[in-house]
Amino acid sequence: MSPTNTEQLKENLSEAGSHLKSAASAASEAIKGAAGAAGDELKLGKANVKSELSDTALSGLNAAEFGGAAAKEQVDVLLDKGRDLLDSATDLIREKPLASFGVAFAAGWLIAKLARSSGEK
Fold first, then answer.
1. pLDDT > 70: what percent of the chain?
2. How large is the average pLDDT for residues 92-112?
3. Is the dihedral of CA 95, 99, 105, 110 positive or negative?
4. Phi and psi for 3 in degrees, rounded to 5?
5. Cβ count within 10 A of residue 45
6. pLDDT of residue 81
């Protein structure tokens, strides 16, 4: 006797159910594997970020150490330029005292005039 249509339907539905169960199990394993891989990548990325931030902090500290020395160098350069300018002015005054006095007098008079005119407003 050959199986009835109903029996064949039941058998095919049972087989489909079995395949569906296997597919769900495979999908579950794939998701678990992907989550594990994503977790590993996240841990690696986190470690890389921490490492780069640590290197950034060390570079910043090194730059700060050199910053103080660089500022001192610039102050020394400015002081040297100031001394050179003062020496140059001193030489000019010694060479031409009358002209220097006239320029200083005129500059003082101009500054006083400007100060008075701004105070009158």
1. 98
2. 89
3. negative
4. -60, 150
5. 10
6. 94
In sequence order, the 6+-apart residues with CB closer than 8 A to the CB of 100 are 92, 93
pLDDT of residue 87: 92
Query: Token digits for 38?
Result: 């994503």
CB 100 within 8 A of CB 92: yes
Q: Would the pLDDT of 120 be above 70?
A: no
The single residue listed with the structure tokens 């996240």 is 42
Which pLDDT tens digit goes with each residue over 40-53?
A: 888 888 888 888 98
Residues with Cβ within 8 Å of 18's Cβ and at least 6 positions away in sequence, in order, are none
pLDDT tier for residue 106 given thresholds of 50, 70 and 90: very high
Q: For 96, which DSSP code?
A: -
Could you tell me how far CA 98 lies from the centroid of its own chain? 58
d(CA 37, CA 29): 12
Q: Are residues 113 and 106 in contact, defined by beta-carbon separation less than 8 angstroms?
A: no
Return the axis-axis angle of helices 5-95 and 97-119, rounded to nearest 10°.
120
